[in-house]
Amino acid sequence: MHKPLRFALLPLLFFIAFLVAPAQGQQISYHRVEQSTVEERLKGSPSDNLGRQKRLRQLFEAAGCKGEALTEIEVEHSTLPNVICKLAGESNSVIVVGAHYDKVTAGMGVVDNWSGAALLASLFESLRNEPRRHTFLFIGFTDEEKGLVGSDQFLKQATAEQRSRIRAMINLDSLGLSPTKVWLSRADKGLAAALNNVAHSMKLPLAGVNVEQVGMADSESFAARRIPSLTIHSVTQETYPILHSSQDTLAAIRMDDYYATYRLVAAYLSYLDQKLATGKEEAPAAKK
Fold this sequence. Notes:
disordered C terminus; 9 strands; 33% helix; Aminopeptidase; 9 helices; alpha/beta
C-alpha cells in the first residue's frame, strides 16, 4: 500500500461487520491451484522492482499466459511498465484484477505487495479453462508506492469507450498477514456483498477493515472514475507496522491464511463473471 506522508501516526482501524444473504443456486467453478504452487510463487520474491517485473512476467508465462495475451505497457513517468495478462471471454466486458508489484526500499516487500502480484498468475490459471462471459485483465501495476502511478496511467491510456466496458476492478494488496479483509468503506457495495456471499458459501473468513489512515490503493484510481472497485487485504492494527519496514519478509506471511485468500478470490472472480452484466444486458447502476 502507498502511505501518504501526511500520516505520521496510525489511528485505530475501524472494524465493520457486515452480513448479507448467501447466493441461491449459484454454481462457482474454478480450477484450484495447489497450495504448494501458490506458496512457491510467493517465495520467489525479487529484492528490486526490475527483478519483480521480470519475475511477474515469468509467472504469467508459466501459468499459460503467453504470446499476444501477455503485454507490457510503458507508463509515463515510470521506468517500468504495467504487466498485463489478458484472458478473453465471450464478450468485451472487462473485469480487472490488479496488484502492484513495486516495493519500497525497506524490507523485502513480500507482504506489500508481492503477496498480491504473485497471486495474479494463480488466479489466471484458476479461470483459464473455464467458460467465461467476461474478459479478464490481470494487471501488475508499477509505481503504486509513488502515488498510484501505474493504475492511473492505465486508465488515462484507455479510451472512454474502453473504460466504459470495465464492470469491476478487484485489487489485491498486502495479503497473508491475517484472514482475508476488505476495505469496506471504499468498496462498491454490490461487489462487497458478492464477496461476502462467496465467503459465506465457502465457509471462509472475511471481515471489513477500513484502512483510510494506512494509505491508498490502486482501486482508488478506478473508483475516482466511477468504476465499481474494492481492495482485498489483510492489514490490521497489529500488523500495520510490518508494512514499509524491515519486517516485511516471507516470515510475516501466514501461509494458510494466504492460501485461503487465494481460494476465496478465485471463487469470487468466477461468481462475478456470472453475476455482473456484460455488454449484452443492461448493466445495473453501481451501488455506492
